Amino acid sequence: MRKLITALALTTTLAAVAAATAALPRAGARYTGPTNSKMVNGFGNSVTFLAGSRTLKRFSFGTLGCFGYGTFPVGVDPYATSLAQLPKLIPVTAKGTFSIASTPVTWSGGDAATHLKAAVTGAFTSATAASGTISITETGANGGSCGPVKMTFVAKVGGHT
């Protein structure tokens, strides 16, 4: 009987811990935060997205691609002029993890013949915070390609870049 009570207590405790570690996003909230991309002209890169109950939408981030391009005038934020946005929704599991395989993004950087793809993986660490990795690959007009280049991010509800 003692073993049964101990097993039941342990099972209940483990179930409670598992439920407590499963974090889901705050539906309708906007998450924003920095990436680990290098600073350019004193400007850092950021990620932003809106959370649904089980999806992330309007996921966007600054990127210079993996080829990089040109120089930037002093005082100009190159990440603000080179934004990538995933046109697809990113599914969120019941455990608060999310991922999307490499998919084409709309990108305001580079030239019209340059194509960028991004893959995103991550998890919610709480209802108000998430962390993850963005991997990008780039294909140029001449058929050359580069990547994947990875950047990590931490985003919070009402976070700052």
What does this protein look like?
The chain is mainly β and 161 residues long. It has one domain. Helices cover 12% and strands 43% of the residues. The chain has one helix and ten strands, in the order αββββββββββ. The chain has one helix spanning 2-21; strands spanning 30-34, 46-51, 55-62, 83-85, 90-91, 97-104, 106-107, 115-126, 129-139, 145-157. Strands 1, 2, 3, 4, 5, 6, 7, 8, 9 and 10 form a ten-stranded antiparallel sheet that branches. β9 and β10 form a beta hairpin. The radius of gyration is 19 Å and the shape is globular. The protein starts with a helix and ends with a strand. The model is unreliable at 3-20 (pLDDT under 50).
Keywords:
10-stranded antiparallel beta sheet, mainly beta, single chain, 1 helix, 161 residues
Layout of helices and strands:
Elements: H1 2-21, E1 30-34, E2 46-51, E3 55-62, E4 83-85, E5 90-91, E6 97-104, E7 106-107, E8 115-126, E9 129-139, E10 145-157
Antiparallel strand pairs: 1-2, 1-10, 2-3, 3-4, 3-5, 4-7, 6-8, 8-9, 9-10
